[in-house]
Design brief:
This protein is of the alpha+beta class. The strands form 2 sheets. A 6-stranded antiparallel beta sheet has the order 1-2-9-4-7-10. The N terminus is likely disordered.
């Protein structure tokens, strides 16, 4: 799971990180200029535009999310972000781990919402009230409530009927996911993951993406980036953080960081320091 990094507060915008929990991160952001370069993350991004026009390119089309409209981005889908007018935009969003949604789906593939903007006035605010409460602590009961509520919302928005039959070998997939998350800097061979899951590598790859919205290798990279960000926040130099997180070098970390978050590690850390000041 990744928190989308803020832009430089002085020039690009401002981001506030709300109370979160395991698999749940809340953000409120304001931008007056280009917010994010094209990037993708392995979480659902579900939010509401609060002011201005939020414009982004998604699945080959330019989209616009107006105040009160809801935004839903599927895991691993490339997108960017910028103001749709000269007045900038402000939004609140929750990033939710697909594994949390999956727990409410009982092994069915993740719902895919073809149109990322829900245009019904007020629908986003009504359905996301709990998930978007920036100050509400996320204990285990609240985490379950948010996960099941967002799963229902995603099913409704995608037109997916609830299935009574589990289509995926979820216990096997969770074993693989947990193994990778426990040691993202390690290199887990396909043969090792086959033995762990009891699935051949091709079935594992297909089912992993259907269950969690991304590939095992991409999931590993995102967990490496999570580790790198924690090290950076603690003041670890970029080169050292890159190696501890399992990247070949600082350049490798920087390339993967920008692909995931739309900005460089240096810009992200400078923005955190500026915000803290």
């Amino acid at each position: 799971m990744c928190t989308p990094p803020p832009g430089a507060v002085r020039k690009h915008g401002e981001i506030t990180v709300g109370a979160g929990g395991d698999g749940i991160e809340r953000i409120e952001a304001r931008f007056s200029e280009k917010a994010f370069s094209p990037h993708r993350h392995d979480s659902y991004a579900i939010g509401v535009t609060l002011a201005g026009v939020q414009s982004f390119r998604y699945r080959g089309e330019q989209r616009h999310c107006l105040p009160g409209q809801c935004l839903i981005l599927h895991p691993d889908e490339l997108h960017d972000g910028e103001p749709g007018t000269e007045n900038g935009f402000r939004y609140r969003i929750v990033y939710i781990d697909p594994a949390l949604v999956q727990q409410a789906l009982d092994g069915s593939p993740l719902p895919f919402v073809a149109d990322p903007v829900l245009r019904t006035p007020g629908i986003g605010t009504a359905l996301l009230a709990d998930a978007l409460d920036m100050e509400d602590a996320v204990d285990e009961l609240r985490r379950v409530d948010i996960g099941t509520g967002l799963a229902r919302m995603l099913r409704a928005a995608s037109g997916t009927e609830r299935s009574g039959t589990a289509l995926l070998d979820l216990p096997a997939l969770l074993r693989v996911r947990e193994q990778i998350a426990a040691d993202p800097a390690g290199r887990h061979s396909a043969a090792t993951l086959e033995r762990l899951s009891g699935l051949d590598r091709w079935t594992l790859a297909r089912q992993f993406r259907a269950a969690f919205g991304t590939s095992p290798s991409r999931f590993r990279t995102m967990r490496q980036l999570d580790r790198a960000r924690r090290l950076m926040v603690a003041g670890t130099p970029l080169a050292e953080a890159a190696l501890e997180a399992g990247f070949a070098d600082q350049s490798h970390l920087s390339r993967q960081f920008k692909r995931a978050y739309g900005m460089t590690p240096a810009r992200w850390r400078a923005a955190l320091e500026r915000k803290a000041a």
